[in-house]
Amino acid sequence: MVDPVLARRLGYPVIYATLCLGFLFLRLLPLSTLPVGVPGPDFVLLLTILWVIRRPDHVPAPLIVAVLLIEDLMTMRPPGLWTAIVLLVSEFLRSHRISLREVNFLLEWLVASLAMFAIMLVNRAVLALFVVPQAGLGMSMLQVIVSVAAYPVLAFALQAVLGLRRTAPGEVDAMGQRL
Amino acid sequence: MARQNDSADYKGPVRRVLIAILALALAGTFLIWRIDSPRVERFRAAFIDRVVPSFDWAMVPVTRLAAMVEGFQSYASLYEQNQELRRELQQMKSWKEAAVQLEQQNAKLLAQNQVRLDPKLTTVSGVVLADAGSPFRQSVLLNVGARDGIVDGWATMDGLGVVGRISGVGQTTSRVILLTDASSRIPVTLQPSGQKAMLVGDNSATPAIDFLESADDVRPGDRVISSGDGGVFPAGLLVGEVAQGTDLRLRVRLSADYQRLEFLRVLRSHPAEQITEPGVLIPPPLPPLLMQEPEAETAAEEPENG
């Protein structure tokens, strides 16, 4: 018999990891090898930020690190750097989860956008500091902008399908602990 | 801002320390990558080698299906027809290319009456497994690797033109950096004028021509072939034709069909004999017995060619 409490607690991390790896898998498909003009949204980053803002208790830090490290390795990024920055930003968001609970959607969107811009800029700054060749700033900017634009769509989709919404103040989890 | 007070008061600090350790470990990984890139890249190649082929069963049908949906315009038969036409067009292109090459070869033969093609240029064919998965990188993963004798740096072609260069070899997979990647640089010759130049990838569909001596002698439509300078790429492989971008910069329209890279050929190239000094005699190859003595002297110079 599967314990329903345990199933709920394990279910969301598994869904998060599956979604991230699914998007990564889709991106790796050799559908078109032509360079693109406008890059698509960075779904893994988007999902991570979204989930950390809405339900930080679903995505433990080790899971985030594991998913992002796999993405680092598969997409030829310098391993570790992007993951470390995303981890730190997600920890920052996690530490403010009480105040993030009470904001409206526009403010949540703004926080997510700022987080993504910060991650991109810090990543580029560190890479520049270590003299690693990187793609143009315009391209990175464009990708973050596209990601920001995709945030509400993903947020509403996840809310509709998975019931992923922010916890109401004073809500308790299945074990009776405060979130 | 209100901070969360965890119910168990030992949990907060311990967690923070663990997160700090995790972040430091990740930063350390990045530093190690920066310091000893080849070793980490080998690890990456091994990791991808392990992971990607195990998803082959899912990737092939999905890729095929997506390609079919793309080609499925209004009628089901259109897909087949389209595919056939594409194949024929590509074949025709290669015949045209063959004709142009034969014409030039003929002219050369008439001129010097003696020609010898490189007998060492044989190929290994591979199927494209995956692409780079990032808009900033242009590379594909092939299903041939060290097991099939693939070596870093070898040239890769589709049926017609150069596609890229092998960079990163796993046991059963290898990565091809495409000519469109921002880190791709190959030496080329522009055909009628015979000028040498570099083909510089810049993440666009048409790589730019750089280090060109006189741009006036080059006009759009000129053939671009690999020059073999530097000994990395074999000479004489078709790359594409010159085109002029809207920014008046000379670019190369690649002959390889980048829209759908499916099967690629990896050219087994062996480093050509290097003639470095201008005034030294080039002796015939020594018989094996006599080779043993001078080996110790040349050993110091060897690694550059390897």
Short description:
Chain A has 179 residues and is an all-alpha fold. Chain A has helices spanning 4-28, 43-54, 61-74, 81-95, 97-100, 105-129, 137-162. Chain A starts with a helix and ends in a 17-residue tail after the last helix.
Distance between the termini of chain B: 61 Å
Work out the helicity level of chain B: 25-40%
Rg value of chain B: 25 Å
Report how far apart the termini of chain A are: 27 Å
Number of helices of chain A: 7
Describe this structure in words.
The complex is a heterodimer of chains A (179) and B (306). Chain A has helices at 4-28, 43-54, 61-74, 81-95, 97-100, 105-129, 137-162. With 179 residues, chain A is mainly α. The two termini of chain A are 27 Å apart. With 306 residues, chain B is of the alpha+beta class. Chain B is built from five helices and twelve strands. Chain B has helices at residues 11-35, 37-51, 56-71, 76-112, 288-298; strands at 122-131, 139-142, 155-157, 162-169, 174-178, 185-190, 195-200, 208-210, 223-226, 238-244, 250-254, 263-268. In chain B, the strands form two sheets. Chain B has a six-stranded antiparallel beta barrel with strand order 1-2-5-4-3-12. Chain B has a six-stranded antiparallel sheet with strand order 8-7-6-9-10-11, with no helix packed on it. The longest helix of chain B has 37 residues, at 76-112. The radius of gyration of chain B is 25 Å and the shape is globular. At the A-B interface, helix 1, helix 3, helix 4, helix 5 and helix 7 of A face helix 1, helix 2, helix 3 and strand 1 of B.
